[in-house]
Specification:
Layout lengths: L10 H13 L1 H10 L10 H15 L6 H10 L8 H10 L7 H30 L4 H16 L10 H14 L15 H7 L7 E6 L5 H14 L5 E5 L4 H13 L3 H6 L4 H15 L3 E4 L6 H14 L5 E5 L13 H19 L3 E6 L22 H5 L2 E6 L1 H6 L24 H7 L2 E11 L5 E8 L4 E3 L3 H20 L1
Parallel strand pairs: 1-5, 1-6, 2-3, 2-4, 4-5
Antiparallel strand pairs: 6-7, 7-8, 8-9
């Protein structure tokens, strides 16, 4: 471990801070609100002792000046160790303007963080020398420790309203909405972009649904649209499916060749041309896929930061899905683990200034309701997900429940064994022509910076593809739903 003498320090800045504190009460309050005793280097412990005396005076609501500091050092039996009266007056004489204390506080703090970083790295080396049983966990713990220190780097004070207003004005100039009203990364879908104005920097977006509803396919489409249409680098973390399987689904979506055909490799010459064209299109997008199974939170955070360093214009991170992420190490409960993971993913979005889309499952409670329409309360495992999220999209496919013999909308109890009406189903021929079309209702259950509402997309299940619906399609869906409800009322 490095000695204290060899560790970095700015002793002159420390002296200016201490001198200013004994001259100006404002400077004293500023320094005591930003620094701690350990922020002063042990290379000259006199500075630590004097700061301790100032802190004691502050805690006792006593004025801080040269004489009160000297008296406190006497009470603490630190007068000689702190350099005596001569050193106190040396500090005062070294101050030119106490109003500049913010600059010197920043200097002291920067050196303190650098010392902490070097000491942590030395500790990590010592731990490694003693032996490591789980290398992955050791790397994650070390990364978390260093990241925690790095977060301390900036000493931030209160911001004046005028300063914030000017910053917002600059943002208006740089992030002026385009002709489609977008200020963020496009979702690729007209009505979603109308509600959200695009995925916004620093936002955590939750996309939630019951299993087999199509959330992975939608997440994949969001990722590709941001990469190809938005022309931004995108990271897709798949904790459940291999990169090859994700790519096959994406090829199906872009080529409109049936998933089954692509999985088996059995297709004709015409489909082969469409697939080649789709592969050429996909190859032009900066889409990065990580398919490491059972990834820990530390793995995801580290890889996202690494990609951000490599691709400064990183536009979106998509994670499929939250239920597969583990914190690493021992946890008291899954609920607490999910709360921690949710909070850290929100922090990741803010630190990288990149929107992060997290796919997650809804609990079974949604299937107990008459309508099967999901609510925010149906988010699985932790209420922290709803709290941390800036935007929550809840997915619902009426035909999914109808196909499984369940009711999508309100139902009456069966009497005397009478059959209840089901929503009309497509024939096999119609499914082949339309790609097994399904209506996907997306409920924007929370939107911290905008409106909530409902959006409907066309989901071609055979191609894992989503599209904006035509007005005619929406009218047809509305008519089918109205007929279905009318049949129920006639029962």
């Amino acid at each position: 471990m490095p000695s204290y003498v060899s560790l970095p320090a700015n002793l002159e800045a420390e002296k200016v801070v201490l001198g200013a504190m004994m001259i100006s009460s404002i400077a004293a309050d500023t320094a005591l609100g930003s620094l701690r005793e350990e922020d002063f280097s042990a290379a000259d412990e006199r500075n630590r002792f004097i700061f301790r005396a100032c802190a004691e005076l502050h805690d006792q609501h006593k004025p801080i000046d040269p004489q009160t500091v000297i008296d406190m050092l006497v009470n603490l039996k630190l007068e000689k160790a702190a350099g005596g009266n001569n050193y106190i007056y040396e500090l005062i004489n070294g101050v030119i303007n106490p109003d500049n204390i913010d600059l010197y506080i920043e200097m002291v703090h920067e050196q303190s963080v650098l010392r902490q970083l070097l000491l942590a790295m030395a500790d990590i080396q010592e731990e490694y020398a003693k032996g490591v049983s789980d290398i992955g966990q050791f790397i994650n713990d070390s990364n978390d420790r260093i990241a925690l220190i790095a977060q301390k780097r900036t000493v931030q004070g209160m911001k004046a309203a005028g300063e914030v207003a000017r910053k917002v004005a600059d943002d208006f100039q740089q992030q002026r909405a385009d002709s489609k009203g977008l200020t963020g990364i496009t979702s690729g879908y007209r009505e979603i972009d109308k509600l959200t104005h695009g995925w916004q920097k620093g936002d955590m977006i939750v996309v939630a649904a019951r299993p087999s509803m199509g959330k992975t396919a939608l997440g994949m489409n969001f990722a590709y649209n941001a990469a190809y249409m938005g022309k931004k680098p995108v990271a897709f973390f798949s904790l459940e499916m291999s990169a090859e399987l994700i790519m096959k689904r994406l090829i199906s979506a872009r080529s409109s060749v049936n998933n089954d055909s692509i999985q088996t490799g059995i297709f004709g010459a015409h489909d082969r041309v469409k697939i080649a064209k789709a592969i050429d299109e996909i190859s032009k997008a900066k889409l990065y896929i990580d398919d490491t199974p059972n990834s820990t939170l530390g793995d995801i955070v580290a890889k996202a930061k690494k990609l951000k360093n490599r691709e400064p214009e990183l536009g979106l991170v998509v994670i499929d899905y939250l239920g597969r992420i583990r914190q690493g190490g021992k946890v008291e409960s899954r609920q607490q683990e999910v709360s921690y993971i949710s909070g850290e993913l929100k922090t990741l979005a803010r630190n990288l200034q990149v929107p992060v889309i997290v796919l997650c499952q809804l609990n079974r409670g949604v299937e107990k309701s008459d309508t099967k329409i999901p609510q925010l309360s149906d988010l699985r495992e932790s209420g922290s997900i709803e709290q941390d999220a800036d935007l929550v999209l809840l997915l619902h496919r009426p035909d999914y429940y109808s196909t499984m013999g369940q009711r999508s909308f309100r139902k009456k109890n069966q009497q005397n064994g009478e059959e209840q009406p089901q929503q009309p189903q497509m024939s096999e021929e119609e499914k082949a022509k339309t790609g097994d079309m399904s209506a996907m209702d997306i409920y924007v259950g929370k939107n911290r910076n905008g409106k909530t509402g409902k959006v409907t997309l066309q989901f071609q299940k055979a191609y894992s593809r989503f599209d904006d619906p035509s007005p005619a399609y929406l009218e047809k869906q509305a008519a089918l739903q109205a007929k279905y409800l009318a049949d129920l009322d006639e029962d």
